[in-house]
């Protein structure tokens, strides 16, 4: 089972980021974790910013919800927010980053976003929420999580996504859905021919492999659904999530041109931008660095940028 001991949650004091804070606190309660709230600001009065952040927190979470919770506030400069989030995640040895992302028009796709930048390079998995999603936090600060979808392509990255999906599904007693997407035009026969008498079709082979990746004991505590479709991966993932009322999508942080194909983005980029629910981008934990090493790398990066 995945161990989540520290959750980093960036916030800008807006109502939308307040939803991410509540989600982070609810996850922390379920996993007995600590929440580090990070506020990046241009202000020079750290004490004043801390006060504003704590007041904003109480607008979204009741004092009763905070009883027994382990949380603290960190204020940092807003020079490069994405860099600061990743630096702080490394410094705090975060096991998960929970943050929100604004929906952006297609014409702004080339500009990227802070959430997408963090997802590409973070030292730990990143859970991204959107402004227009429904409220996933129920009474007593519990995550309303009934169905978890894992996008699985038999790679090491998707195996990591499966581990996180399994852990969260088990913690919240949710259904687990596994989806594998075959390349376009890989299945040209009608659906009745997907189970041939002799030999195995691409669909049949993928379906059998998908069933085998789920450990046998998982079926004892979690309903499991496996599905195979054909087409563009991000479209199939989004369609499946919409059709099956998925509450969380878990994907591996890789793919053809992830972070490189700026013009069209990648499957992960598109799922992040258009998903109807929060998206967990599973990334391997990077080895912890000493605080002095992080500060040195941080200063070198800014010297390079300014030169």
Key structural traits:
307 residues; Rossmann fold
Structure, described:
The protein is α/β, with parallel strands linked by helices and 307 residues long. It has one domain (6-306): Rossmann fold, CATH 3.40.50.12370. 40% of the residues lie in helices and 20% in strands. It has helices at residues 15-31, 46-60, 63-66, 81-91, 114-121, 156-172, 202-212, 218-221, 233-243, 267-274, 291-306; strands at residues 6-10, 34-41, 70-77, 96-101, 126-130, 147-151, 175-182, 224-230, 248-252, 279-282. It has a ten-stranded mixed beta sheet, with helices on both faces. Strand 1, helix 1 and strand 2 form a beta-alpha-beta unit. It is globular, with a radius of gyration of 20 Å.
What is the CATH class name? Answer: Alpha Beta
Stretches where pLDDT falls below 50 for ≥5 residues?
107-111, 255-264, 296-307
Q: Please, how many domains?
A: 1
As laid out across the biggest beta sheet, the strand order is 3-2-1-4-5-10-9-6-7-8
Beta content comes to 15-25%
> Tell me about the biggest sheet?
10 strands, mixed
The CATH topology label is Rossmann fold
Helix fraction by DSSP (H/I, runs of at least 4): 25-40%
> What average pLDDT do the residues reach?
80
What structural class should be given to the helix and strand makeup?
Answer: alpha/beta
Radius of gyration: 20 Å
Give the overall silhouette. globular
List the helices and strands in order: EHEHHEHEHEEHEHHEHEHEH
Give a count of the beta strands, DSSP E runs of length 2 or more.
Answer: 10
């Amino acid at each position: 089972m995945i161990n989540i001991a520290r959750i980093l949650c960036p916030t800008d004091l807006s109502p939308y980021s307040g939803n991410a804070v509540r989600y982070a606190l609810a996850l922390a309660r379920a996993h007995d974790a600590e929440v580090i709230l990070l506020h990046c600001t241009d202000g020079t009065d750290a004490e004043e910013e801390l006060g504003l952040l704590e007041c904003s927190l109480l607008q979204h979470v009741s004092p009763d919800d905070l009883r027994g919770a382990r949380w603290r506030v960190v204020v940092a400069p807003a020079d490069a927010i994405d860099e600061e989030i990743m630096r702080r995640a490394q410094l705090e040895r975060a096991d998960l980053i929970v943050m929100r992302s604004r929906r952006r028009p297609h014409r702004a796709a080339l500009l990227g976003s802070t959430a997408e930048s963090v997802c590409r390079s973070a030292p730990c998995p990143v859970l991204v929420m959107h402004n227009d999603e429904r409220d996933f936090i129920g009474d007593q600060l519990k995550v309303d999580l009934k169905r978890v979808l894992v996008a699985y392509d038999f790679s090491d990255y998707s195996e990591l996504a499966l581990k996180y999906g399994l852990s969260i599904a088990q913690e919240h007693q949710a259904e687990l859905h596994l989806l594998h997407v075959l390349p376009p035009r890989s299945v040209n026969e009608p659906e009745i021919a997907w189970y041939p008498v002799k030999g195995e079709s691409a669909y049949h082979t993928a379906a059998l492999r998908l069933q085998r990746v789920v450990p046998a004991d998982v079926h004892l505590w979690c309903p499991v659904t496996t599905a195979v479709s054909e087409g563009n991966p991000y479209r199939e993932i989004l369609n499946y999530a919409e059709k099956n009322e998925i509450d969380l999508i878990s994907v591996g942080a890789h793919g053809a041109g992830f972070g490189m194909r700026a013009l069209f983005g990648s499957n992960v980029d598109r799922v992040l931008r258009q998903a109807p629910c929060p998206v967990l981008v599973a990334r391997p934990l990077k080895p912890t660095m000493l605080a002095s090493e992080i500060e040195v790398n941080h200063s070198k990066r800014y010297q390079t940028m300014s030169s």
